[in-house]
Specification:
Strand order of the largest sheet: 4-5-3-6-7
Shape: elongated
Number of helices: 16
Oligomer: single chain
Order of helices and strands: EEHHHHHHHEHEEHEHEHHHHHH
């Protein structure tokens, strides 16, 4: 649909059309661009071909648009030219502050020219012209913003598709150098594979709110924080439940990885749990399976949130492998089947790193009650949780029992989330 300026009254300044000072667009555009380079800081950082090419051309278009609006002429072509130029600047990475600073600086120069011969007799025309000038500035900024961010959204979408394609290829064990070049993303020599669990936000359980909207907002906050901390280095497939993140192994220290998970938890407003395995690209599919098996085990043990590494859980991981040893260990807890409160206490106590006060708070009981239950567990099972050897057997028994076909210890807590597959579900 064509964009037309409404019919304007005969606006004049000192007997001349108000648009007259803007009509010598070639000379005036060169003057304005020189002003931009000298006084508008971001513009001075642009390369010469941009300043004296596109910027000068579009400055002329802006002047033509302003004059046409003052004269009540059609501005459709001017608007389309501005949108197209803004799209090009978005592709080239020209910062928006440079563009809008130049627009406002040029508008100020144009206004000074228009009012330079203003007399008392021109007051009414000046008032009407000022309203039109506000429309001019609105039209300029709207057209440029519209073109710029439309192109930016397209570029972001293309990058997201490329990241998704390469990440899926790495997870599937089929990355190629050709694919990496097509995606514009280099494949690292080695990766840190993170299996991530994102539990439900408390507002997802609020019946007065749309749980899917809450969940997607949680996910967007998490993804934004990941981009902030890792830039374009992170390859991820995440949904509202969690998923998998690949990070170049040589770009993040152990402390930075711990801080990353903590930062993601703060952004998501939930306690995120993650497990980590290192791998070269060819080994990523196996590493992903291993990382998610570790994550599943950590959740079965009700461990506190945070980042867990394979070398911290190697023994526990081995206990999950099928065999007579796992069967024997799983049977240790059989005497607790009729004492659900004891089994829950043992799970929470181990998950809380043997912190009696934290366990008592989670159970809403006194610490003496926790001590009594732990003593009772020792009496029934024959393994005292107060002694290192007894605790080792009980912890091992919890791990082994959670993988038994008739598992009764694995629970899903709506507040703390659940175990996740490699490619988690979308809402």
């Amino acid at each position: 649909m064509a964009i037309d300026s409404p019919i304007r009254p005969n606006l004049t300044i000192s007997g001349q059309p108000m648009s007259t000072p803007l009509r010598d667009v070639r000379a005036l555009s060169r003057q304005m661009v020189g002003h931009f380079v000298e006084n508008v800081v971001p513009c001075g950082t642009l390369p010469g071909e941009a300043i004296y090419g596109d910027v000068t051309t579009i400055t002329r278009v802006c002047l033509e648009l302003a004059a046409n609006m003052l004269d009540g002429r059609n501005i459709q072509q001017n608007v389309e030219q501005l949108e197209e130029a803004a799209a090009g600047w978005a592709r080239e990475g020209v910062p928006t502050d440079a563009i809008h600073n130049a627009i406002h600086a040029g508008f100020e120069m144009g206004m000074n020219l228009i009012v330079s011969n203003l007399t008392v007799k021109d007051f009414d025309n000046f008032v009407d012209g000022s309203r039109i000038n506000i429309e001019i500035l609105h039209t300029l900024t709207s057209a440029i913003s519209r073109g710029y961010f439309r192109e930016l959204r397209t570029a972001v979408s293309e990058h997201h598709t490329a990241v998704h394609t390469l990440t899926s290829a790495l997870l599937g064990g089929r990355p190629t150098s050709t694919m990496a070049r097509e995606c514009g993303i280099a494949i690292a020599d080695a990766y840190v594979v993170l299996a991530v669990s994102i539990p439900r936000h408390r507002d997802e359980l609020n019946p007065a709110l749309d749980s899917q909207v809450v969940a997607r907002r949680k996910l967007r906050r998490t993804q934004a924080e990941l981009a902030t901390q890792c830039g374009g280095n992170a390859l991820s497939l995440l949904s509202i439940d969690g998923g998998t993140i690949l990070l170049p192994a040589d770009q993040h220290t152990d402390e930075e990885l711990d801080a990353l998970i903590e930062g993601l938890s703060i952004a998501a407003q939930v306690g995120i749990t993650a497990t980590m395995v290192a791998a070269v690209p060819e080994q990523i599919p196996v590493a992903v399976d291993q990382a998610h098996e570790l994550l599943d085990m950590v959740q079965r043990l009700h461990c506190v949130t945070g980042l867990y590494r394979f070398d911290e859980l190697a023994l526990e991981y081995q206990l999950t492998r099928p065999g007579p040893g796992r069967e024997y260990l799983g049977g240790i807890l059989t005497p607790l089947d009729e004492h659900a409160e004891l089994l829950e206490t043992l799970q929470l106590h181990i998950g809380n790193n043997l912190n009696r006060q934290r366990t008592a708070r989670a159970l809403h009981v006194h610490t003496n009650t926790v001590d009594y239950r732990l003593k009772r567990i020792g009496q029934l099972t024959g393994f005292d949780p107060a002694h290192p050897s007894g605790l080792w057997y009980l912890r091992s028994a919890l791990i082994a029992r959670s993988y038994h076909p008739t598992d009764t210890t694995k629970t899903v807590d709506a507040q703390s989330g659940s175990a996740h597959a490699r490619l988690p579900r979308e809402p």
